[in-house]
Amino acid sequence: MERSPGAALTSSPEEEEEKAADGHGEEAVEQEDEEAAPVVLKKGPWTTAEDAMLVDHVRRHGEGNWNAVQRLTGLLRCGKSCRLRWTNHLRPNLKKGSFSPDEEILIAQLHAQLGNKWARMAAHLPGRTDNEIKNYWNTRTKRRQRAGLPVYPPEVQLQLALAKRCRYDDFSPLASPQLPGAANVQALDAASTGYTSSRPAPLDLARQLAATSQTAVQFLPPPPFSAPSSPWAKPFARNAQYFQFAHSSPVSPSTPTRPLHPATPDLSLGYGVRSTDQSRLAPLSPSPGPRVELPSNQFGQAMPPTSAAAAGGGGAALPDHQHQNAASLEKMLQELHDAIKVDPPSLAPANGDAERHGGGAVLERHGGRENKLDGQHRDDDMGTLFDMMIPRLNAAETVPVPLPPAAAAPNHSGSTSQHSSDDQDPSTVDLGVDLPPVAGGASPSDQDWGLDGVCHWSNMSRIC
DNA sequence: AAACAGACCAACCGCAACTAT
DNA sequence: GATAGTTGCGGTTGGTCTGTT
């Protein structure tokens, strides 16, 4: 193990650059090595001269053997630091700049599937580093949590809800056939990364649900990078509009576009809620392999029940597409009711389309089984799902729906820390659905989302 | 203009897995 | 198999930038 000996050198970058330029030749370091003198390694920001030395070293010797860099070049950096610098800043084909909207969506999906597996996520985002993704995610989740906004975009929330509904034990014996054309991150993960649990990741279950029931929850590739606006970091009203667009360019080689399934209802909930079948939501989980890693869920705090409403930016003056979204949600909810065979709370008028979906049998079978957990979780799950969806319906249809108290259990850990992440029981995965205190008679939707623009990212700083 | 807060970013630290001896 | 060295990963920290008061 390498430990940084001694105190870090503290001087200005200019000074360090000068030192690096004229002071640290190979001879000097070799001399030090011969004398076995302790080398005080430098810490802190890299100078351009150091970068040049490192680049030159990699050009000559290739990547790897990072501890030799200091020995061969005289660079007063530990191997770990060199590797980090190269990986995060110097290696070619790095993509700098802010994340595109589609990258943001993909990150959310990957995080929902993988948890805080930044390196694995980075593998699906060419040119991006794990550190970059990690910083991005932590910053935005912290901001969103503070604002009481959902951590995940609605489409991912829905998949999580489905996954939560379908407990692991219910599905573990089932095969998980790949959906048609589902070349995706999961396939890559399953093939190239190690899963460490014997149970499938939560989002696997949504896929299994989709495959088992004929309700066909479809998971499609993420949107391309050429979106005109950020669907997540921008006001949701605009998001919904954006996701009405049709795209075709692939995100990356690992997330190719795929043919759309013509007979598949769209369950993408907000980000891609369309009355058509054009959801591009990527498959979020591979077929359960021999080892399945459960996603860490470090977000103990849940989302407000109105989170889904944000996707549509619903409000008194709903644009047409948002009405469509609401109708689509309504239909989706009805389908889920039918599929899971749980009486929903009184909602908007039932949609007759729901009965044409024949997913109920299988789901009923699973839902009817006694779970390891107490029987309440079933209601909790549905409540969670309803909570995500109903407020949005409320916003669109002004149908008041009482929120199940079970889903209102807040968890205000308020931290994005990893401490609770990896050991959390995935069967109790928090969907990020939280119920902030609702004051007065206004609905959460009206209070929290869209109607007055408080959900806009630009307003975040003022919320708290 | 100054103070402050938040966002963003780069880098470090500790740990674990992997590999070579 | 044991040990040391190396690499990779994830969490955290601290500095800088930017917007707000």
TrEMBL record:
<dbReference type="InterPro" id="IPR009057">
    <property type="entry name" value="Homeodomain-like_sf"/>
</dbReference>
<dbReference type="GO" id="GO:1901141">
    <property type="term" value="P:regulation of lignin biosynthetic process"/>
</dbReference>
<keyword id="KW-0221">Differentiation</keyword>
<feature type="compositionally biased region" description="Basic and acidic residues">
    <location>
        <begin position="353"/>
        <end position="379"/>
    </location>
</feature>
<feature type="region of interest" description="Disordered">
    <location>
        <begin position="401"/>
        <end position="450"/>
    </location>
</feature>
<keyword id="KW-0217">Developmental protein</keyword>
<dbReference type="GO" id="GO:0009555">
    <property type="term" value="P:pollen development"/>
</dbReference>
<dbReference type="InterPro" id="IPR001005">
    <property type="entry name" value="SANT/Myb"/>
</dbReference>
<feature type="domain" description="Myb-like">
    <location>
        <begin position="41"/>
        <end position="90"/>
    </location>
</feature>
<dbReference type="GO" id="GO:0003700">
    <property type="term" value="F:DNA-binding transcription factor activity"/>
</dbReference>
<feature type="region of interest" description="Disordered">
    <location>
        <begin position="1"/>
        <end position="44"/>
    </location>
</feature>
<dbReference type="InterPro" id="IPR017930">
    <property type="entry name" value="Myb_dom"/>
</dbReference>
<feature type="compositionally biased region" description="Low complexity">
    <location>
        <begin position="248"/>
        <end position="258"/>
    </location>
</feature>
<dbReference type="GO" id="GO:0000976">
    <property type="term" value="F:transcription cis-regulatory region binding"/>
</dbReference>
<feature type="domain" description="HTH myb-type">
    <location>
        <begin position="91"/>
        <end position="145"/>
    </location>
</feature>
<keyword id="KW-0539">Nucleus</keyword>
<dbReference type="GO" id="GO:0009908">
    <property type="term" value="P:flower development"/>
</dbReference>
<feature type="domain" description="Myb-like">
    <location>
        <begin position="91"/>
        <end position="141"/>
    </location>
</feature>
<dbReference type="GO" id="GO:0030154">
    <property type="term" value="P:cell differentiation"/>
</dbReference>
<keyword id="KW-0238">DNA-binding</keyword>
<keyword id="KW-0804">Transcription</keyword>
<keyword id="KW-0287">Flowering</keyword>
<keyword id="KW-0805">Transcription regulation</keyword>
<protein>
    <recommendedName>
        <fullName>Transcription factor GAMYB</fullName>
    </recommendedName>
</protein>
<dbReference type="InterPro" id="IPR001345">
    <property type="entry name" value="PG/BPGM_mutase_AS"/>
</dbReference>
<dbReference type="Pfam" id="PF00249">
    <property type="entry name" value="Myb_DNA-binding"/>
</dbReference>
<feature type="region of interest" description="Disordered">
    <location>
        <begin position="347"/>
        <end position="379"/>
    </location>
</feature>
<dbReference type="GO" id="GO:0005634">
    <property type="term" value="C:nucleus"/>
</dbReference>
<keyword id="KW-0010">Activator</keyword>
<feature type="domain" description="HTH myb-type">
    <location>
        <begin position="41"/>
        <end position="90"/>
    </location>
</feature>
<dbReference type="GO" id="GO:0003824">
    <property type="term" value="F:catalytic activity"/>
</dbReference>
<keyword id="KW-0677">Repeat</keyword>
<feature type="region of interest" description="Disordered">
    <location>
        <begin position="247"/>
        <end position="321"/>
    </location>
</feature>
